[in-house]
Amino acid sequence: MPLTKKQIRQLKSLVHHLNPVVIIGQNGLTEAVFNELDITLNTHELIKVRLNAADREERQAMIAAIGERCDAELVQTIGHVAAFFRRNPDKPVIALSQD
To answer: Cα separation of 99 and 95, whole Å?
Structure first.
């Protein structure tokens, strides 16, 4: 389910004070990184990921791969940090506006 502009604005305000919980280093997107992203998204729903890639195109490719593989919505990117959201169907943590 795609997020509305109002929901994205709400998530941006929530993600602002968070620290990156997953840091992708020189090895890039490994299976262990995807497993950690999946666990973290199930637990928190809204996370920041630090992408230590050399150039913008490589970071954008990583962001697209994370969104597709983890079935997560990109909330925002600022520099080397991207914020992702994925609803936990069993125990929702964040109440999104339904507007």
So the answer is: 12
Q: Which two tokens stand for residue 18?
A: 């968070």
Fold assignment, 5-85: Translation Initiation Factor IF3 (3.30.110)
Question: What confidence category does residue 46 fall into, taking pLDDT thresholds of 50, 70 and 90?
Answer: very high
Please give the Cα distance from 97 to 80 (Å, whole number). Answer: 28
> Is 0.90 topped by the overall pTM?
yes
How is the chain split among helix, strand and coil, in percent rounded to 5? 40, 20, 40
Helices 31-44 and 56-70, axial angle in degrees (round to 10)? 60
